[in-house]
Amino acid sequence: MRMSEAIRLGSMLGPQSRGHLQRTHRKYFFGLIGPLVTEYCALGAAFKASGARTIEAVAERDNPGFRGGAIRKGEKVAIVDHEWGALSLTVASCPACALEPPPEATPPSMPLYRLIPHLNDDHRWSRGRIADFVELVEQRIDASQAIEVHVAVDFP
Q: Which end is more exposed in the chain, N or C (fewer Cβ atoms within 10 Å of the end residue's Cβ)?
């Protein structure tokens, strides 16, 4: 399953979350009463829809956190086992920052695993809009791989 498809499918599972992959809370009165509701950010929706497993581990060294925080050596962490390894490490420029940067600034570039939460949390993009952007990245990767294969076939 492509990541863009998983984001779209996962967005049907519940409301959009900001700041969390997944968050369950009560629906009414500041989360104190009512039925339980599970919200998913764009990446959390993709993980849920694709059936990605979560593996408990202990950090072997200090790492930058998923949403910019810090993970200290020895802390328990959850690692998501998913099928988009190469895609999630693809570096892209933030399309939202590119529209409103200061004149001398360039939009930040970051791997998709950080860019998707950035669009979800900081720019408050809908999961459908994020899926459209991810689909564009997937298409560009497919096109570049097709060109490489074509060149390899023409010039052995």
A: C
